[in-house]
Structures are given as structure tokens and as C-alpha cells.
Give the backbone structure.
Amino acid sequence: MEAASLPAGLELVAGGGAGLSPEKRAVLGSSLLLLQRDYRFERVWFWGCIQGVRGAYYIAEGLGPDRAAPRSRLYSLNCVEWSLLPPATKEMVAQAEQLKGRFQGDPSFEYENTEINAEDAEGLIEDGKELLMKEEARLVATIEQIDRAVGIIPRGAFLKTPLGSVHENRNFEGLSLTEAKKLSSYFHFTEPVNLKNKTLLEKADLDPSTDFLDSLEHDVPQGSWTVQLEKGGTVVVLRSLLWLGLTFYHVPMTKQYGYVYFGTGEKNLDLPFML
Amino acid sequence: HGPYQPHEPGYGLYQPGYSPYDDQIPDLNSQKLAIENAKAYLLESSTVSGLNLYDHLTNMLTKILDERPTNAVDIIENISKDVKWAQFQKKMDTLRDEHEILPTFEAAEKRKALFLRANGEGAEELEEEIGETPLPNVMETAFYFEQAGIGLSKDESYHIFLALKNLITVHPIQTCRFWGKILGLEMNYIIAEVQYRDGEEEEEEAEEEEVTEEGEKEMGEIEEEDEDEEKEKDEPPKSTYKPPPVIPKEANGTGANKYVYFVCNEPGKPWVKLPPVTPAQIVCARKIKKFFTGRLDAPVVSFPPFPGNEANYLRAQIARISAGTQISPIGFYQFAEEEGDEDEEVGRDTYEENPDFQPLPVAEMVDSLSSWVHHVQSILMQGRCVWLNPIQKSEEEEDEEDEEEEKAEEPEELQQEVGPPLLTPLSEDEGIQNIPAWTAQPSTNLIPHHAAAILQSNRWPGAYAFACGRNFDNIYFGWGHKYSPENHSPALPPPVQAEYPSGPEITETTDPTVEEEQAFKAAQEKALAAGEEEEEEEEEAAEDDEEDDD
């Protein structure tokens, strides 16, 4: 969620019981601003918090002029000092998918892939480096996965210019209440995958400036999002069931929206059994 | 005048004011004519929409001059779209729109009703009971949890506070606590943990029993009809299957049913009481993992089939979470002094507040997990807190080792080793793989004087506890599932049951092989040949006899 709307936004996502202490809220107000100054970001988003066993990681993202460009990610253990994370690579993501269990809370912790050791120990002696993965890399990969899978925005909030860059839509007044309850009014804020597969008839109805992303309708498995009206029906809250802890809020007919992640950073692979 | 199309030669070369024809001053008339032609062109109505460009540009410019947006040139297309769209909005209509009654208004009504004071008797009773009230101070608890970043927004906490107050006025309740919130797919659950006043509970039980008895009578009648029908036809062989004995649930007020739980979807909606939990439900709940939908009557479709609907599943999960994560600082509760053997098989299940409780400093509460104890009895493998020997056979349940429960399944041995199982310290909790069962942190590192000790459970993500001086509390915010690093694998279906006992009379014998058949044939022929020889001998003997007779 936008750093500027952090206080209001946290109140609206608090329905899940997770939030920030007053101390963290107070310090984030200033430290995110300083991040903007130091790294020359145009926008700073507070991404959320990944709870490790011994500590928590607080993550912030910075956006440049093109909002759809790869974002810079920073993490902090106390919301005061931030460190830039390296960009995620495919190998990192593939390795991180094999790791299971909680984050430890220590960025220099090294994971050892002990399962492979017994069977193919000889074959992997050369690739000894692959057995170890640092928690920092796992953090990067997890954030990338979460953003790619469940980072969402309302339809119409961002516009694609003819030159290809993406900006906020200044004319976005918010979704209406009926629109806000439908999953098709929300898009994944990442490279679209399914857009090309739509039939020509569907594509004809799309507006290329606003409909340039995948919508949530065809997410697999169906039902992996819960849509609820909270606070007496004034806030629409979407929660992801694939990555438990990701909460998206939007106040219909206003410009307030955002998503934040408060969780353990583990994918919920049991989802098909639980629905 | 000049080339207007990009493909025409000379396009872009002639800037206004610098065109080669500018030194020629055109006739006023021809200029006027040109203007009128241009205006006529702009006034042309579109064949598609009936608008004309002149009016449209006029409206757009009027709107821009009225509103004066910044950087209007960047959003000019959107402004144009908005102006066109505004055409379709009715300004004056003889039909008046009926005011839409949005569901948000109804919800707001309900929430406002929470804030209205009950009239008449309510005011008088309040004065009497202000001294002691079972109502917990939800806002104070919320404050402490907020220091750790846990909790609902203040608005919602206050609404829950008022909803609990309503609950207390309606039901005869002795103690009440906000247990937590469980999220669901369509709606969430807000849960209150409650203890009835002695005596009041019996009335409620009686009502429930009547309802269940009526249900059973109906079942009995249906079963009788089936039996009559069966007697008429040939009876199929009766199955020798004997279901395992049903373990009775614990009485209300003891063990897993010590507290009664009320749930509601949102503060303002009526509170619904959850039924007491049975051991079979707890045992089954351990094997399945399902999201809650938010409707108490929703069926729970799973394997092994859950005996009950969502209300029962919810109650079973609440029981498990309470047994695993309700903790208090050591010394706050103590056992009532009893005369009797300490080595009883049945663990003590009652405790009282310790009037001499000395709170430990926060640093110690955070560092050592042995400064916290569980004050809710753990649930055994059987599904009860107090082990009950089922009547017919001695089940082998205590012998089964399982990974889940951290407490003793054999109360006798561990009771003597580690203190009383009821107030066992947290340091005895097993972790999962290499993760400890609890994560302890102070709420703030910057101001240690006023920090609170916060514990988060790693086995039940979402269970939190805080302690600050004499205050402490537990709460749960989550989806209601246990943490397991391994993926959930549902139980496999049991092996196919044998239809009949196999014995020699129905077992097929194996067909003889070719060699065996030939050997048998050879043996038979030999026997025949031997038989013929004997017959010949007998015939000869008979003939001899006959000849002799003659």
C-alpha cells in the first residue's frame, strides 16, 4: 500500500488481526519518506511483513516513473534501517520453491537441502553451491512469487500509455459497490499471461489502456480469493487463500486501495484440499 | 490550404505565419467564406452518434474552463470521454429514482443498534452490577495486543465490546472472554468464550436434550419400519461388523467442554451458541483441513467424513486451539489445596487464581519459556481430556504414537515426571522440526520499561498471548488451522472389507498342471490294468469252479 495512506490502510486491513504496532507505524512514516529521498523513488509502497521464527522482515517497494517496471525491494528488521535486495532471478525462484518451512528471521541464515544429499551426493558434489541458499535470496524469491501471483490492483487504477509505460489513472474514482464484489474487476499487477489467450470477441470489448493485465476471474484453483465486505459493508477486502496473509482493501467509490502481506511467507499448497 | 495529410508533399514544412502564401492578403470576403465553411464543417452532425464536433468542443472547453484541472492537455481524451458520457445521464426526468437501499445501510443500522442503551430496566440493572460484571475489558486487551501489532482496528474492537455486553445481558453468564476471530470464505466468526452461572446451565441442557430426544425417536421409528420390511424378504447374511464403541463426550463444564462458545459473524448480529464437542469430532478434525465458509450450517465434505456440520467443526477446532495455546504466567493460577493422593490417575482439572501472584519482569517472561504454563487441559488422543476406558475392549489408543499432541497420552507416567499436566510450563512443548513451539518477543525494544512480553505460537499460527505485570490474555486471529511444514495428505481409504470369512469349503482348489494330470491318468490306467488282471483271475477261478462243479 502507498506509504502516504499507511495509517488509513492499516485500519482497513486489520480485520485479519494482523497489523503494525504504534511504534512501527510511527517510524515508518518517516523512514519511508527518507527512502524516497535517498533512492529517488517516485512512489514507495509498504509491502508488508514476513514473520520469521526469531524475527520479522519488513519489506518496502520503490517504484520509478514506469509503474510496471521491475520494482526495487528493500527489507528491514526494525523499520529504521533498510537494505536493498538484489533483483530476483529465475534460478533463485526455482530454488526457493524447493525450500519448505518457516523463515528464520536471520538474513544470513543458510539453508541446506538435505534431501538430495542421500541419493545423488556424488552427482551434486560439483554443484555444491546449489545445496545452500541464503535466507536473503529466499526472501527475494518469495516476495517476487507473491507479487507475481497475488499482487492486485482494481481495474482502471492504472493506465497504459501508447508508449508502453504505465501510470496511475488520475480519473480513477473507484469501483462501484457492485463492481467491487466481482473478481473480474481486479487485475494482477504483473506481466499478463492469459491476455493473449482470450478470444477475439472478448478482446474486442477490452480497452487497451485499462485492460492490459490478467484479471482474477480465471485464477486456478477457482475460489482461491475470498471477497468480503467489512466494517458494515463500507470496505471490500480480498484475501488470498494461496498465500495466506495477503490482504487487499478498497473503499468503493473512492480512490483508496492497496494490498499488504502479513504472514509467514509460505505458500498454501494444501489449498485444493481445504476448499 | 496547405497540405494537411502526412503523405502529401510539403507536409510539416509550412508553419502558421510562415506559409508561402502569407504575404498575400486574402479578401475579407474569401476569408469570411473560409471561416463559415470551416464552421459548417464542424457543425456537421455525425451519422453515428448525432453529435457534432462544434458542440462537443464547446462543452469540453466549458468544462475545462470551469474545473481548471492541472495538465489538462494530458487528460484531454478522458475529459472528452466524460463529456460524451455525461450526455447519457438524465438531468430532469418525470420519474424519480427510488432511493437505493444499499445493504451497507442495513448493516449500519445494526451497528448503530449496538450503541443504543436498553431502555427502562436496563438502566436500573446497570447501576446494581457496575461493581462486578463478567464483561471483559476488551479495549484494554486490544491495547496490549496492539503494542505487538496484533489485533483488530479500534472500531471493530469497540463494536465487539458492545456485542459482548449484549450477550451478557441476554444469557446468564458468569465469566466471559473475547476468544478471537476466525476468518472464513464468505464471512468471518467472532468467538466469545463463556461460562454459565451454576444452575443456569442445567436449564439450557434440558432444552437441548429434549430436542435431541425427539430427533432420536424419529430415527427409532424409521428403523423399525425397515426391520419389518426386511423380515418379509429373505434375510441376507448379517454382517459381523461391530463398529468401535462410541466414546461419550465429556460433560458440560469439564474437560474439552469446560467453556461454552458463542459465535457471530459480525458485531451486531445475534450470537449463536455452539454445541458441545464430542471426542469423535476432535479425532476427525485432526485428520482434515478445511476452510470455514462462515455459515454455521454448511456441511463439511471431507474424508474421513466429519460427523457434523461446520458448527461442530468450528467447535472442535476451537477446542484444539484452546488446549494447545491458552497460556498464563506461571503462578497466576494454582491448584486448590485438596486432601488426597497426588498420584491419582485423573489429573486435576480445576484451578483458582493465586492471590499471592508476583508477576515476573518482562525480560524473564520473554527469555525463558518455563515462566508460562498452559491452563487448559490438553486433549488426549482419544479426544477427551480425561481418559475413559471404553467398556468392551481395552482400546490400543494409548499405545499409538503420534506426532501431534505435545502432552502425555499416558497420564500416569508423565504425571510423576513432570508437574501436574494441567499447569505444565511451555518449555515442555515440542517444536516442529527445528522450530520451537513458541516465539517470544518483547513488544518494544526501545522502551523496555513499559514493554509487554508477547508470545506467538508456531504450532497454531494466529494464537498470541501477552503478559504485562498482572495483566495477561490470550487471543486467536487466524484461519483456524494447525501449522504443518509438510503438505497435508488426506487419509487413505481403508482396505476393502472381506465379505465373508474364507474357509476350505469355499476356497477354490488350484487346477492340476499337465504333468499332474498325466501322472494321474497313468496311475489310473495302472489301477485299471491291475483291476482287469484281478478280474481275469477271478473269472478263471470262477470258470475253474464252474468246471469243477460240472
Remarks:
- The first strand of chain B starts at residue 173 and ends at 182.
- Chain B has a mean pLDDT of 76.
- The first helix of chain B runs from residue 28 to 43.
- DSSP finds 13 helices and twelve strands in chain B.
